[in-house]
């Protein structure tokens, strides 16, 4: 199952690859990373239809924000699930994400147990 | 008739040798002399009256002037007092402006510190897990795997140090920022300063304006020598310029709905540095609505602001101007209405 993580912090890639190394090794999931909303849309647009099943995106990023990316994905790739990961877990961000069709909302620092559970469930349903 | 003239007339009339004709002529002449004398007396009397009146008026005027002098003296001391009050208020406002800009930063700073701290926590957690794994591999005796895990852990601990230092620099920067003008000049990497404050200003602005879809770009000259400046002061200037630039971009977007889609223009703030040989140029450019010609020469004046009441102190640019002047530098603005604004700082090497 292909998952795309979007965050403007580059070290997120090293961290998530290590946190999910077992799941990656077993072939359960495949991770890709984009460091801006634009890059994420490019990555998703590279394949037709994209094989990505799930996108996790940060909200506060230079240029396109995560919420805008969410809207774009919902328009262009309605089958892909999107969840937000943000340091700003206020109700305004939360409501906007949920109203725009986000599947879930994770706050930073990320609770990896919860994130793993979320992904495991998604894998099971595939 | 005047008694002396009468006496002359009487005496002359008694002389018998005078003919009647001569007598009437003398009589007429003396009467005319008397008439003229009467007129002169009258004129003299009038002049005297005028003199008296003038003297009284003069006295009154002097009194009045004295009163006015006293009033002016009072006004002067009142003005002096309000000047002192104003000075006190101004220094208070400058203090407030410093605190306000620190306040504006708080959200950005919190975010800025939270991110590296999360990495520090996460990577140390991961290392802990990797150590457990490594212990298992040691039991199995798989040297290859043990080595691989060690290398990953080494990389992780380098990341922990890096992000720890990042948080450290932010806290130090924050403390520097709250210091009030006591900073010392020190060799400063202006590129690093520009980068740090751009990120800080961007995150602070974003934290307050969640709808903002702009971005910032850095165009930094790699050939920049270290420059002797007060880093927190130059940082303050950058922060003011950046805040204004983001504000301007956001304004443009609010004015025209769908502006971004219409023109394909993303609100963008570009911070650049350039080595000009004898000077270093730092510029902050935004593609906001520009500065109207009519107010261009007012923007550096203290308390001038175009922001709604309560949103700007009008001291940001004025303080920036003072700081750059104190560094012996120059600050200019160039603006094309409806297109862009560029603030340019020139610092002598």
TrEMBL record, chain A:
Q: Which Pfam families match?
A: Response_reg
Q: Does the keyword Phosphoprotein apply?
A: yes
The Response regulatory domain sits at 2-123
| Positions of modified residues (4-aspartylphosphate) | 58
| Annotated GO biological process | phosphorelay signal transduction system
InterPro entries this protein is in?
Answer: Bact_response_regulator, CheY-like_superfamily, Sig_transdc_resp-reg_receiver
List the keywords (alphabetical).
Answer: Phosphoprotein
Q: Which residues form a coiled coil?
A: none
PROSITE patterns given in the database record: RESPONSE_REGULATORY
Name the chain's protein: Response regulator receiver domain-containing protein
List the source organism: Algoriphagus alkaliphilus
Give the taxonomic lineage as stored in the record: Bacteria, Pseudomonadati, Bacteroidota, Cytophagia, Cytophagales
Automatic annotation (TrEMBL), chain B:
Molecular function (Gene Ontology), one example: phosphorelay sensor kinase activity
Q: Which residues form the Histidine kinase domain?
A: 108-349
UniProt superkingdom: Bacteria
Task: Enumerate the Gene3D superfamilies for this protein.
Answer: 1.10.287.130, Histidine kinase-like ATPase, C-terminal domain (3.30.565.10)
In the UniProt record, the signal sequence range is none
One Pfam entry name:
HATPase_c
Instruction: Name the InterPro entries for this protein.
Output: HATPase_C_sf (IPR036890), HATPase_dom (IPR003594), His_kinase_dom (IPR005467), HisK_dim/P_dom (IPR003661), HisK_dim/P_sf (IPR036097), Sig_transdc_His_kin-like_C (IPR004358)
- The protein's name in its UniProt record: histidine kinase
């Amino acid at each position: 199952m292909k998952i795309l993580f979007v965050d403007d912090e580059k070290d997120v890639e090293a961290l998530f690859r290590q946190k999910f190394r077992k799941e990656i090794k077993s072939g359960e999931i495949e991770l890709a990373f984009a460091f801006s909303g634009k890059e994420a849309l490019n990555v998703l647009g590279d394949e037709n239809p994209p094989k990505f099943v799930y996108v996790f995106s940060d909200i506060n990023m230079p240029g396109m924000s995560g919420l805008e990316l969410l809207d774009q994905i919902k328009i262009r790739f309605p089958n892909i699930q999107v969840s937000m990961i943000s340091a700003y877990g206020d109700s305004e961000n939360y409501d906007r994400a949920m109203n725009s069709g986000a599947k879930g909302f994770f706050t930073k620092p990320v609770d990896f147990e919860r994130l793993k559970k979320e992904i495991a469930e998604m894998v099971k349903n595939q | 008739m005047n008694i002396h003239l009468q006496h002359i007339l009487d005496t002359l009339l008694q002389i018998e040798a005078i003919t009647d004709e001569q007598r009437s002529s003398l009589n007429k002449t003396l009467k005319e002399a008397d008439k003229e004398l009467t007129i002169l007396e009258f004129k003299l009397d009038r002049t005297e009256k005028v003199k008296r009146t003038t003297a009284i008026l003069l006295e009154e005027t002097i009194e009045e002037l004295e009163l006015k002098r006293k009033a002016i003296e009072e006004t002067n001391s009142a003005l002096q007092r309000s000047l002192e009050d104003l000075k006190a208020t101004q220094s208070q406002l400058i203090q407030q402006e410093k605190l306000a800009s620190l306040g504006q930063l708080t959200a950005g700073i919190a975010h800025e510190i939270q991110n590296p701290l999360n990495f520090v926590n996460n990577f140390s957690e991961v290392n802990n897990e990797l150590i457990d794994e490594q212990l298992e591999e040691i039991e199995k005796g798989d040297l290859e795997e043990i080595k691989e895990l060690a290398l990953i852990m080494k990389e992780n601990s380098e990341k922990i140090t890096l992000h720890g230092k990042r948080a450290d620099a932010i806290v130090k920067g924050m403390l520097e920022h709250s210091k009030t003008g006591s900073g010392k000049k020190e060799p400063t990497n202006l590129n690093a300063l520009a980068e740090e404050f751009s990120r800080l200003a961007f995150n602070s602005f974003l934290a307050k304006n969640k709808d903002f879809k702009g971005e910032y770009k850095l165009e930094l000259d790699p050939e920049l020598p270290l420059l002797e400046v007060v880093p927190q002061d130059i940082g303050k200037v950058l922060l003011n310029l950046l805040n204004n630039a983001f504000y301007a971009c956001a304004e443009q977007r609010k004015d025209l709905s769908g502006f971004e889609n219409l023109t394909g223009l993303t609100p963008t703030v570009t911070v650049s540095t350039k080595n000009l040989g004898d000077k270093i140029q730092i510029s902050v450019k935004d593609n906001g609505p520009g500065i109207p010609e009519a107010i261009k020469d007012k923007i550096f004046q203290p308390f001038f602001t175009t922001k709604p009441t309560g949103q700007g102190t009008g001291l940001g640019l004025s303080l920036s101007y003072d700081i750059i002047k104190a560094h012996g530098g120059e600050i200019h603005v160039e603006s094309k209405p409806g297109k862009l604004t560029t603030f340019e700082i020139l610092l002598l090497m």
